[in-house]
Amino acid sequence: MIIPWQQISPDALNSIIEEFVMREGTDYGESEISFEQKKLEVKQQLNSGSIVLVYSELHETVNLMAANDFKG
Questions:
Q1: What is the CATH number of domain 2-23+35-69?
Q2: Among 7, 6, 9, 1, CA closest to 63
């Protein structure tokens, strides 16, 4: 189920984004991108709707995923 990210607290959203960025790996080609820049890019993708915040009732987890990959 998609959770409207605007309806959760800023602290909770920040924690979800941080966990997602830390889990996603670190190979960004020739130039390294800062942790803060990575978090900002994820937030921009949420704003644009290209990624969504998803709750899995089966696994009782929250995750970020590409909007076109979500099969709710």
A1: 1.10.10.610
A2: 1
